[in-house]
Amino acid sequence: MARAYNFSAGPSAIPESVLKEAAAEMLDYKGTGMSVMEMSHRSSAFQSIIDDAEATLRRLMGIPENYRVMFLQGGATLQFAGVPMNLMRTRHAGYIVSGNWSKKAAKEAEKYGTVDVLATSEPTGFDRTATLEGPVDQDLDYVYLCQNETVYGTMTRELPQTGNVPIVADVSSMFLSCPVPVERYGLIYAGVQKNAGPAGNVVLICRDDLLGDGPALGDVVPTYMGYRVQADKDSLLNTPNTWGIYMCGKIFHWVEDTGGLDAMERRNWDKVNLLYDYLDQSRLFSPIAKRDSRSIANVTFRCPSKELDKEFVAGAAEHNILNVGGHRVLGGMRASCYNAVPKEAVEALLAYMESFEAAHRADCRTDA
Ligand SMILES: *Cc1c(COP(=O)(O)O)cnc(C)c1O
Questions:
Q1: HSE on the CB side for 19, CA within 13 Å?
Q2: CA of 165 to the centre of ligand 1 (A)
Q3: How many other CB atoms are found less than 10 A from the CB of residue 314?
Q4: What's the pLDDT tens digit per position in 19-36?
Q5: CB of 215 sitting under 6 A from ligand 1
Q6: Is residue 91 helix, strand or coil?
Q7: Which of 81, 103, 265, 293 measures 20 to 30 Å from 21, CA to CA?
Q8: Distance between CA atoms of 362 and 252, rounded to whole angstroms?
Q9: Cis before residue 11, ω within 30 degrees of 0?
């Protein structure tokens, strides 16, 4: 059976070589006589797996020693609460709202303290990133942004200037897609199901001093949600998502073995630029995200009508091109071209777009 051209926004494509390795180790992981799924999280075999995953990630991202790496559960969504619970020491934080994920995070944070919306692109339908105007109040506990807004297909390339206020970033849909200057953030986190593993794990990287002696909101915070204790227990406070961490480790190695983050970034822009360049001259399709704000991963576009969008998505499936429908809040189309999506898949999508446009001349714009 042929593998699909899978443009799913998440859970999404995993490198075929990694899936094959996992399949080969399924019944007997390295002579242990059991699958990783069946093994104690306190075993030395699993300890080596999690240690190796962290070490590989540290090499890949150049994570400084004063940052702690945690493998947590509950998806990126749980960290919308985890961040304020742990870091809102004066119960006052700033949020940059550039799409539905940062909007949800800001709304969740309002349960715990005062949220200042420092910038927003909501008035233009989140078709671009949001940029800070002027200096940031230095009394804020942190400034939050979602660096790649998965639904709208926008990406913030320049981090905001926040002075001494730590930057907290949800990088779920650009995790390991390109290098990031870790030392410029206070905290980075990502749900791994976009680029780095199966759903259910979050990688959280936090500067040690921000952890303090415990969560900002004190003892009411569920023990599990306290970053200090999770860091001190090396993500083994309770039973972690052992299988997920094992798969993450394999994918981290795959990124490293295929050239690391610089090479990944080049390949990713090469892929999405095939689509962006086509969209810029197409007379049928319109790109949704503004040029300066375009994502390295999620390419959003639409046809002149909802009916054509529907026809496009249905026709794509007949070409083995799957999951190109847009998010339910936005409609249109979205092709998520994450790390494990091969260029060949993007070329197949491009060819299909060209043939679809040729077959719908009557619906095309006549202006340039
Ligand atoms: C997918 C996604 C989320 C939600 O992740 P869950 O693991 O489903 O909670 C949050 N933020 C961003 C940027 C995402 O892409």
A1: 8
A2: 24
A3: 10
A4: 999 999 999 999 999 999
A5: no
A6: coil
A7: 265
A8: 47
A9: yes
Angle at 102 between CA 273 and CA 250, to 5 degrees: 60
Q: Residue 245 has which token pair?
A: 């961490």
Ramachandran angles phi, psi of 42, nearest 5°: -100, 5
Is the model's pLDDT at 114 over the cut of 80? yes
Q: How much distance in Å is there from the Cα of 76 to the middle of ligand 1?
A: 5
Residues with catalytic function:
101, 170, 194
Ligand 1 pocket residue status of 295, Cβ below 6 Å: no
Cα→Cα distances 212→120, 142, 346, Å: 30, 14, 45
Whether ligand 1 lies within 6 angstroms of the CB of 300 is answered as no
Residue 80 CA: which ligand 1 atom is closest?
Answer: 10
Q: Identify the pLDDT of residue 129.
A: 98
d(CA 87, CA 204): 13
Neighbour tally for 52: CB within 10 Å: 16
> To the nearest 5 percent, what fractions of the chain are helix, strand and coil?
40, 15, 45
Residues 6+ apart with CB under 8 A from 220: none
What pLDDT score was predicted for residue 2? 83
Q: What is the mean pLDDT of residues 286-293?
A: 97
Stated pTM of the model: 0.97
Minimum CA distance residue for ligand 1 atom 4: 76
Query: Which is the closest atom of ligand 1 to the Cα of 202?
Result: 7
With a 6 Å cutoff on the Cβ, whether 191 touches ligand 1 is yes
pLDDT band (50, 70, 90) for residue 296: very high
What is the set of domains in the chain, with CATH numbers? 16-257 (3.40.640.10), 260-362 (3.90.1150.10)
- Written as one letter, the residue type at 311 is E
Cα 340 to chain centroid, rounded: 13
Atom of ligand 1 nearest to the CA of 147: 13
pLDDT digits (tens, 9 = 90+) for 175-214: 999 999 999 999 999 999 999 999 999 999 999 999 999 9
Q: Is 101 in the pocket of ligand 1 (CB under 6 A)?
A: yes
Substitution candidate for ligand 1 out of 71, 97, 101, 156 with most atoms within 8 A of CB: 101
**Atom of ligand 1 lying closest to residue 191 CA:** 7
48 C-alpha vs ligand 1 centroid, how far in Å? Answer: 28
